[in-house]
Specification:
By secondary structure, the protein is an alpha/beta fold. The protein contains eight helices and 21 strands.
Length: 559
């Protein structure tokens, strides 16, 4: 902590001594120093960021002359992505237009610094009401994508990441010690041995299946990604390098994974310098989202792809493959599709996927055109990788039905961050960050927001049985949740019941009864508990007794 504070002070001191201009204009991707230094050139502000272990200038962000002085001290976080539904074993179900949120008009917002990390003591930025609200300061290809997609669907999506680190503010109420805790293993609610879903821990699985899943924890805090860019006779011709075309997507993915890990992380991405020729028409393989990875066409494509590129790519240490084609390729011939088991000269890569080309027309010609939004790259990789299920219940979006987690979390239609429960499963959250409550006890615990960077506790789990438990996490407008309104912040309480089998089932919100939880701009927007409110679940009363920028203090007791 002291070393970090000294570094920040030193950086500030150096920046104060730096001249207001430089004789060498900053250029995105070129070396810079020190970290977080900002420089404005021709009305664009550049930030010195760390990327792939090196300090380089970020892409320039347009600075409005009339606002630049006033907004400079308000350097803010960075957001990410969200949108509609999709499964892996089962087909995705897109919400009906009547279920879609009503977007706000394009806002006039200050130019934000989406590269730096903001201290939570300064508060959270609340500039949006839902994922459909347009973003005034998007740049580059995501600005073009948002404009095209908004014209098609009247909904923006999630393109960025709001980075926060936990400040020094702490709760004022007394907190319990570990005397009301039990063994962490009791809280590792287990997926039943005969389940085909990955919603809980895998302690009941046979060794071979467990080994396979451990190799498929994608996206996780440790992963090496190999991009395979190809062109064929029926794709668009390449005009740029693959990294120029799709680097923003991979930056988004790696930035999210690094930020989401509260422990060590190791994320690497390998891009060939140019697109590689593929001998067959890509349209002949029926690479569609709704086809399983083991469909004959998908299996044939993996075999033919490896044959075409294996001599040109070193797959040593690679955990996952992402296959891309040049922008402008028709969306209906190369879609998002799960792939498995790339048998290369360097070994087997278990996880892979194709992604839609960056083609900004004919969205109505394909079923899942929303997958172009970068949020959906992460969502779909969780289907292709470890095999996380969707959590939107029966997709009827009815509080009297099986509503699942509503439109909360990364694995639902509206999107948001990955649930703290799944972050624990995948390794972003460690055992030491979980309050495992002794059954039957009364306890008061503090949890930090699940999408804020910290090593403090982020999760309360009350075990009910080996396959069932109550999970509690704190929600703030951070990480991929940057577009939720302040009124939706609070505590999410949900039941994990893995004995319930079926696509979209097994995780379900416990809803407050003192208001209509479905009010707001997305389904179950008012589900989180607010201060002094309680809910009942499985004979327990869960009460939110203190809230702040630090997160929430929750009391768990027998009802």
């Amino acid at each position: 902590m002291k070393r970090g504070a000294i570094g920040i002070v030193a950086a500030l001191f150096i920046s104060l001594l730096s001249p207001a201009f430089s004789t060498t204009p900053p250029k995105a991707g070129e070396k810079c120093t020190p970290l977080n230094k900002k420089q404005t050139y021709k009305n664009y502000q550049y930030t010195c960021i760390k990327k792939s272990g090196k300090l380089v200038w970020s892409k320039g962000v347009l600075v409005k002359k009339e606002n630049s002085a006033a907004e400079a001290p308000q350097a803010s976080p960075s957001p990410t992505s969200s949108s509609a539904p999709s499964p892996s074993p089962s087909p995705s179900q897109t919400p009906s237009p009547s279920a879609m949120p009503t977007p706000s008009p394009t806002p006039t917002l200050p130019v934000r610094d989406w590269f730096s990390t903001r201290n939570t003591d300064l508060g959270y930025i609340h500039e949006y009401e839902s994922r459909c609200d347009r973003e005034a300061d998007l740049t580059g290809i995501f600005r073009e994508l948002e404009s095209a997609y908004f014209q098609y669907s009247s909904c923006s999506g999630i393109y960025r990441l709001a980075k926060y680190e936990l400040g020094s503010l702490r709760p004022s109420v007394p907190l319990d010690t570990a005397s009301t805790s039990t063994s962490i293993d009791q809280c590792k609610i287990a997926e039943p041995r005969n389940s085909m879903y990955q919603r809980g821990f895998f302690t009941n699985f046979e060794p071979d299946r467990l080994s396979y899943l451990n190799m498929s924890k994608i996206p996780g805090p440790n992963m090496s990604i190999q991009v395979i860019p190809i062109f064929a006779s029926d794709t668009e011709k390449a005009k740029n390098s693959p990294e120029t075309d799709y680097g923003a997507y991979l930056d988004f993915l790696t930035d999210w994974a690094n930020y989401s890990s509260d422990g060590d992380s190791r994320i690497s991405v390998k891009f060939p310098k140019e697109y590689l020729e593929f001998p067959n028409k890509v349209s002949s393989y029926n690479l569609f989202h709704e086809n399983r990875h083991d469909s004959p066409d998908h299996v044939r494509f993996v075999k033919d792809l490896v044959a075409a590129v294996d001599s040109k790519i070193d797959f040593t240490g690679i955990d996952t493959v992402i296959v891309l084609v040049p922008p402008g390729t028709p969306l209906n011939i190369f879609q998002q599709a799960t792939l498995k088991d790339f048998k290369t000269n360097e070994g087997i890569v278990r996880v892979g996927t194709t992604e839609y080309p960056y083609t900004l027309n004919n969205f109505d010609k394909v079923k899942f055109s929303n997958f172009l939004i970068p949020f959906w790259w992460i969502h779909e990789l969780y289907h292709s990788g470890i095999g996380f299920d969707d959590h939107y219940g029966d997709a009827k979006f009815d509080i009297n039905s099986e509503y699942g987690l509503g439109w909360w979390t990364l694995m639902t239609p509206s999107g948001g961050d990955l649930s703290a429960w799944e972050k624990w499963l995948i390794g972003f959250v460690s055992d030491s960050q979980v309050h495992c409550v002794k059954p039957g006890s009364a306890t008061t615990r503090w949890i930090a927001p699940s999408s804020v960077k910290t090593k403090e506790k982020k999760l309360i789990v009350v075990p009910i049985s080996q396959t069932k438990g109550i999970v509690i996490e704190s929600i703030r407008a951070a990480g991929l949740y940057y577009k939720i309104p302040k009124s939706s912040e609070g505590v999410l309480v949900y039941e994990v019941d893995l004995s319930i089998v079926g696509h979209g089932l097994g995780l379900k919100l416990v809803l407050p009864t003192n208001r209509k939880p479905n009010q707001g701009n997305f389904f179950l927007a008012q589900a989180p508990l607010r201060q002094s409110e309680s809910v009942l679940s499985n004979g327990y009363r869960i009460t939110l007794i203190e809230s702040g920028t630090f997160g929430d203090v929750v009391k768990v007791e027998r009802a």
